[in-house]
Amino acid sequence: MQPKFCSQCGHLLEFRPVEDNHIRPVCPSCGFIVYQNPPIAAGVIAAREDGKVALVLRGENPGKGLWGLPAGFMEIDETVEETAVRECLEETGLTVQLNQLWGVWSYRHQAKQSSGVLVLFTATVVEGDARAGSDSVEVKFFSLDEILDVPLAFETHRDALTKWKGRKT
Ligand SMILES: [Zn+2]
């Protein structure tokens, strides 16, 4: 979503090449330049002792009615690791211990003119009973054999799980 008004003085923004010729929103009144950067999300491939991985059924868009890994956007005072653990607890009721960085994905939604970065960790469930919370409506564990047949909300999650399955089989 492109900003319309200057956050400094309220004037209508213009779009024009700035410095490096990148087209940016610029305020013609006070000269303020809006630099837009992608938000960062973090999440987990959280496995139980039996190897099954937790997915959440999404209750909100994007991806309402589809499944996804527990993940969400970083708060300003968090590390990516803290975000991944917090989002998992909020969406599944499960406390996890992170194991390793699984990958970093850039994504882009052309229609919405937005983009972002997703950081995923592998993790082990150490405590808690699976229960839906936050913007999830159901939590379920899936085996390696079935997980890629689940209707997933995001291509990044599919890529991450394909890589996960490839390592395990
Ligand atoms: Zn301005």
- What number of domains? 2
Class by alpha and beta content: alpha+beta
State the share of residues found in helices, binned by percent.
Answer: 10-25%
Q: What pattern of helices and strands is seen along the backbone?
A: EEEEEEHEEEHH
Bound molecules: zinc ion
* Number of separate strands: 9
Low-confidence stretches: none
CATH architecture classification of the largest domain: Alpha-Beta Complex
What is CATH's topology name of the largest domain? Nucleoside Triphosphate Pyrophosphohydrolase
Write out the CATH superfamily name of the largest domain.
Nucleoside Triphosphate Pyrophosphohydrolase
Strand order of the largest sheet: 6-3-8-7
Quick summary of this structure?
The chain has about 170 residues and is α+β, with helices and mostly antiparallel strands.
Q: How are the elements arranged and paired?
A:
Blueprint: E1 14-18, E2 22-26, E3 40-47, E4 53-58, E5 67-68, E6 71-73, H1 80-92, E7 95-109, E8 114-127, E9 136-142, H2 144-147, H3 155-168
Parallel strand pairs: 3-8
Antiparallel strand pairs: 1-2, 3-6, 4-5, 4-9, 7-8
Bound molecules: zinc ion.
What does this structure look like?
The chain has 2 domains: 1-36, Ubiquitin Ligase Nedd4, Chain: W (Single Sheet), CATH 2.20.70.10; 40-168, Alpha-Beta Complex (Nucleoside Triphosphate Pyrophosphohydrolase), CATH 3.90.79. The longest helix is centred in the last third of the chain and has 14 residues, at 155-168. The protein has a 4-stranded mixed sheet, sandwiched between helices. Strands 5-4-9 form a 3-stranded antiparallel sheet. A two-stranded antiparallel sheet has the order 1-2. With 169 residues, it is α+β, with helices and mostly antiparallel strands. A hairpin with a 3-residue loop joins strand 1 and strand 2 (22-26). The protein has 3 helices and 9 strands; from the N terminus they run E-E-E-E-E-E-H-E-E-E-H-H. The chain has helices at residues 80-92, 144-147, 155-168, and strands spanning 14-18, 22-26, 40-47, 53-58, 67-68, 71-73, 95-109, 114-127, 136-142. The radius of gyration is 19 Å and the shape is elongated. Bound molecules: zinc ion (ZN). Residues 6, 8-9, 11, 27, 29-30, 32 line the site of zinc ion.
